[in-house]
Amino acid sequence: MALLETDGLTARYGDFQALFGVDITLNEGETVAIIGANGAGKTTLMRSITGVLRNEARQIRHKDVEIGHLPADTIMKRGIAMVPEGRKLFPSLTVEENLIIGGQHKGGRDLGDRIDSVLSRFTGGPDPMALAAGHDGMGHWTLETIYALFPILRERRMTPGTALSGGQQQMVAIGRALMSNPDVLLCDEISLGLAPVVIRDIYAALPKIRESGASVIVVEQDISQALAVADRVYCMMEGRITLEGRPDAISRDDIHAAYFGDAA
Amino acid sequence: MIWLDTILQGVLLGGLYALFAAGLSLVFGIMRLVNLAHGDLIVFGAYMILIVVSVLGLHPFLAALVAAPVMFVFGWVLQKAVLNRTLGDDILPPLLVTFGLSIVLQNGLLEGFSADSQRISMGALETASVSVGPISAGVLPLMTFASAILVIVALNQLFYRTAIGRAFRATSDDPVTASLMGIRPDRVFATATAIAMLVVTIAALYLGTRANFDPNVGPARLIYAFEAVIIGGLGSLWGTLAGGIIIGVAQTLGAAINPEWQILAGHVAFLLVLLIRPRGLFPRGH
Lengths: 264, 286
Known about the structure:
The structure holds two protein chains of two kinds.
Chain A (H helix, E strand, L loop, with lengths): L1 E5 L2 E5 L2 E7 L2 E3 L3 E6 L5 H9 L9 E3 L2 E2 L5 H7 L1 E4 L11 H9 L7 H13 L4 H4 L11 H7 L1 H5 L10 H13 L5 E5 L7 H8 L2 H6 L3 E6 L2 H7 L2 E6 L2 E6 L6 H9 L4
Parallel strand pairs in A: 5-10, 5-11, 8-9, 9-10
Antiparallel strand pairs in A: 1-4, 1-6, 2-3, 6-7, 11-12
Chain B lengths: L1 H30 L6 H19 L3 H22 L10 H22 L15 E4 L2 E4 H23 L1 H11 L1 H6 L4 H26 L7 H15 L4 H21 L4 H15 L10
Antiparallel strand pairs in B: 1-2
Helix pairs in contact in B: 1-5, 1-8, 1-9, 1-10, 2-3, 2-4, 2-8, 2-9, 3-8, 5-6, 5-8, 6-8, 9-10, 9-11, 10-11
């Protein structure tokens, strides 16, 4: 059974269509990389899966439940966490608060969810508590284990998140997503704008994240980095999947064609 | 010595203005919504307390305790059903809708309670005072000021020490990323307005017990509250208290010189502060 899959996923911003029937699959325990040039639709795909962009219900399935129509907070409580492009730390929160907030709403049992759950019986809308029921958010990741993974964050825990260097901010963003102990972790362009030595440090955390039981989708423009960590690779161009395969089974020429199109 | 007394009265009046302003500041800080009906909501709260006092025969403080949960739920529903629909990149819809709400509230109260001015009676408390040497202060103004400080301390604790406060700050920073953390921004906004209505109830208690009120006094309270927030610097509750005190002191000093100058002096002080510090006294960073 696929943990997460999209089925003919389409997405649009107003009149502009950004995705044209995208099919991807993430199996349990897998790390999948999605590569592609700027504007290929990678971030749109992430925004759709996380519910920031709403889609048709049947176009995205997580653990065999249709989630395409659900709001972002309900999807997060089902166990899909996101490291957003550009890190997006909360400037008003300290490093530690940024981490805590990643886990404080896991499980979907806050008052608002309880109220909406009762209301859903009358309105027929989605029941956030039933939808989050399979994921209690407990597991390996706590403040302590995240500080063990990225020790520098413990030293900086009382500073505002946005006062850190780019690489340290990326560590906070990853830690923040892990705090809900997701079964799916989406990482959007985590190497963007970072020095190669910092990128190596960040990616060094990936094996431990996989050991903790999370399946991972990494979105990358850095092709060699993506091929090094992934079990399978998808390449996107102009809102479509143009290539899928195991890193050792696809050639540089295949990638070149899928990345830039045949005209290049 | 009369001047010292005047300044003290002004400082205590500033506590009342800070109470008017705290709810406004809370809502603006979290969702960038300028609630033009804030003054009318305070008046609405005062009428609600008045009803509880006259129907149930309770002391005004107990009546405010009864009114507070009602106002809390009212604020939640108002935000969920109406104000959330106005939020977005455009700042005009919230202004128009809350302006409309202000008119609806004023006319609704006029229909229900007529234009006669009302007052919530506190009995002996109204005239009680304490003296320190040659200076004396009313017990009610002192309680108002103490309440303002308590409200500000409580709101700061809520903001910086609780999970709800973290969600408030995160949503204020970036609602989309907050939703990726499992936060539903429209619920956070509803909670914030509901809490603001608790502060409004406290403000209403002192509005109604310290002076006469009628359905049309709301907009003037809004202006004092707004000036206090702006002088203090957006986002700083202690700044709001300082702003309220500046306006209060200016008003009582103006009135001491010439009774006609009371309101004018407050507005002039507001303009002077803005001339010297356009971002307010204690603007929050970033």
